[in-house]
Automatic annotation (TrEMBL):
Keyword annotations of the record: Lyase
Record's keyword annotation contains Lyase: yes
Source taxon at top rank: Bacteria
EC number: 4.2.1.148
Native organism: Paraburkholderia hiiakae
Taxonomic placement: Bacteria, Pseudomonadati, Pseudomonadota, Betaproteobacteria, Burkholderiales
Pfam families, alphabetized: MC_hydratase
Top-level class of the enzyme under EC nomenclature: lyase
Coiled coil: none
Gene Ontology MF: a single term: lyase activity
Protein name: Mesaconyl-CoA hydratase
Entries under SUPFAM superfamilies matching the protein: Thioesterase/thiol ester dehydrase-isomerase
Record keyword Lyase present: yes
Gene3D superfamilies xrefs: Hotdog Thioesterase
């Protein structure tokens, strides 16, 4: 680098939160959203060996009360969890538990979904002094605001300075 060139300035994406960053009542809006495709639904359904035709047989699904194929609820759950990682568990040591998983509205191919998480509680770990336990309630929302999924998740999160740095 020549002496006349300015020193380079380096930036690194700083996704994720540490234990100290969480406060009960905070709500994280997870973006970007995701439009569900037919390929997403069929591949996920078959990959997970789910043989219910409501997810991949359009003729069968047309005769159902929904009139069309449903997106596999495990797929929507997985996408919503994935959307929440940057805000909730990017630095987590691990998930400690899932609770109160509710499927409140169907999702169809072509729906665009979003998610948000509210911090319900946090406490320091009794056995791990450099870590804490955070519980959030996450909801999946269609683009029109319809809630289709909710769950509570508890994660073990390091305190600032105690996490893995690469």
């Amino acid at each position: 680098m020549s002496e006349t060139m300015a020193k380079s300035v380096r930036f690194r994406d700083a996704a994720g939160r540490y234990f100290e960053d969480f406060e009960p009542g905070h709500i994280y809006e997870h973006r970007p959203g995701r439009t569900i495709t037919e390929t997403d639904n069929i591949w996920f359904t078959l990959l997970t060996m789910n043989t219910h035709p409501l997810h991949f047989d359009n003729a069968y699904a047309a005769k159902s009360e929904f009139g069309q194929a449903l997106v596999n609820s495990c797929l929507t759950l997985s996408i919503v969890v994935g959307m929440s990682v940057r805000d909730v568990s990017q630095h987590a040591i691990g998930n400690l538990g899932w609770d109160k998983v509710l499927l409140t509205s169907p999702v169809f191919v072509g729906d665009t979904i979003y998610a948000e998480s509210e911090v319900l509680s946090k406490r320091e770990s009794k056995s791990r002094p450099t870590q804490g336990i955070v519980t959030v309630r996450t909801v999946g929302l269609k683009a029109d605001g319809t809630e289709f999924l909710s769950f509570e998740r508890t994660v073990l999160v390091p305190k600032r300075g105690a996490g893995i740095v690469v």
